[in-house]
Task: inverse folding
C-alpha cells in the first residue's frame, strides 16, 4: 500500500470515528414503526396493541368476508378491508381507543397510542451507572468508546509516523516482515 493508500485508510478511520462521535452526541433517535394486526376468524389479533404517535398500524384481513377497523369515537377508520387485503392508519393523537368492525360489531379490540416524547420507564434507579452491569439508557458504552479511541490512535499514528514506522512495528511485534522488507519484496 503506497503513501496515498495509508492516507486514505487513516482518513477513513478518522472520518468514521468523527461520525460515531457526532451520532452519539445526539442520543438515540426514535423512528416511526409499523405494527401489524391480523384479522382472522372474525377477530383482531392481537386484541390490544400499543404504539407511539407517528407509528402506522396495518390491518390485514385473512378472512373471505370484508371487515373494518373503526375507532368507537371516530378517531380513525380503515374503511372496508376486503378479503386478503390490508389497510393502514398512521396515528397522530395519543390516547386509548376502543375499536370495532362496523360490519361485524362483535369484533372489538383496543389501540393504545402513547405520546412520542414519553420516556421509557426507569427499570433500576438505585444503581444507575454505579458499578458493574448494563449501562443506563443513553450512557456511552465503554467498550465502544475504547474501540473508537484505538482506531483513532492507529489512524493518527500512521499519519504522524508514516508507513515505514508502522511496518517496523508490525515486524517487531508479530515477527513477520511486511512484503517490502522480505527478500525480493517491492
Result:
Amino acid at each position: 500500500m503506497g503513501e496515498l493508500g495509508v492516507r486514505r485508510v487513516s482518513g477513513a478511520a478518522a472520518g468514521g470515528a468523527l461520525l460515531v462521535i457526532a451520532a452519539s452526541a445526539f442520543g438515540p433517535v426514535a423512528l416511526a414503526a409499523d405494527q401489524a394486526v391480523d384479522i382472522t376468524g372474525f377477530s383482531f389479533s392481537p386484541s390490544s396493541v400499543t404504539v407511539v404517535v407517528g407509528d402506522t398500524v396495518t390491518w390485514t384481513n385473512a378472512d373471505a368476508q370484508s371487515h373494518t377497523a373503526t375507532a368507537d369515537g371516530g378517531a380513525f377508520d380503515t374503511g372496508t378491508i376486503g378479503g386478503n387485503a390490508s389497510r393502514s392508519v398512521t396515528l397522530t393523537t395519543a390516547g386509548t381507543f376502543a375499536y370495532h368492525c362496523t360490519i361485524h360489531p362483535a369484533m372489538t379490540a383496543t389501540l393504545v397510542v402513547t405520546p412520542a416524547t414519553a420516556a421509557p420507564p426507569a427499570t433500576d434507579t438505585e444503581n444507575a451507572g454505579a458499578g458493574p452491569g448494563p449501562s443506563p439508557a443513553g450512557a456511552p458504552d465503554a467498550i465502544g468508546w475504547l474501540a473508537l479511541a484505538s482506531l483513532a490512535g492507529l489512524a493518527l499514528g500512521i499519519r504522524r509516523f508514516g508507513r515505514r514506522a508502522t511496518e517496523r512495528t508490525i515486524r517487531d511485534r508479530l515477527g513477520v516482515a511486511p512484503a517490502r522488507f522480505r527478500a525480493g519484496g517491492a
Notes: The longest helix spans residues 142-174. The first strand starts at residue 34 and ends at 40.
